[in-house]
Amino acid sequence: MSMGFLVEETAPIVWRGLMVMSAIEKLLRQVDWGELDYLVIDMPPGTGDVQLSISQNIPISGAVIVSTPQDIALVDARRGAEMFQKVNVPVLGLIQNMNVFRCPKCSHETHIFGEEGARRLAETLGFDVLGR
After folding, report:
1. Using CA atoms, how far apart are residues 34 and 69, in angstroms rounded to an integer?
2. Which residues, including other chains, have CB under 8 Å from residue 113's CB and lie 6 or more apart?
3. Domain 3-131's class?
4. Which of 14, 35, 83, 103 has its CA 20 to 30 A from that of 59?
5. Which domain of life is it from (predicted)?
């Protein structure tokens, strides 16, 4: 299920407050998920209405923070991790996305977006790196 199914294909999702809560309620309570062991919710980066509404209105076992290794992305990742801790959601660890580019011709690896940013952030915050 996706928020994309609730709006027109090219329409931006410019929602705040009650509109966000209404959409989250529909996704969580009006979709027949069947019997689940886990429900993974992929949220946008940040600490806005979506993250707060979900963390305050449904039981959450934990959060996984995903970030690219760039400094600006790591700032958002840190804020997200600290927000989840503040609302008593355990942070399970960090994943570094876009870790390396491997040339399809020669297999040379290049760290286009930086190197080891998520590892350094995880060490600073006391979390594990779950993957790259």
Report:
1. 36
2. 68, 69, 70, 73, 98
3. alpha beta
4. 14
5. Eukaryota
- Alpha-carbon distance of 36 to 30, in angstroms, equals 15
Q: Are strands 101-102 and 109-110 parallel, antiparallel or unpaired?
A: antiparallel
pTM: 0.80
As a dihedral over the C-alpha atoms of residue 81, residue 82, residue 84, residue 87, rounded to 10 degrees, the angle is 180
Sorted by where each begins, the domain ranges of the chain are 3-131
List the pLDDT tens digit at each of the 132 positions of the chain.
877 777 788 877 777 777 877 888 888 888 898 998 988 888 877 787 778 878 887 888 999 999 999 999 999 999 999 999 999 999 999 999 998 899 999 999 999 888 888 889 999 999 999 999
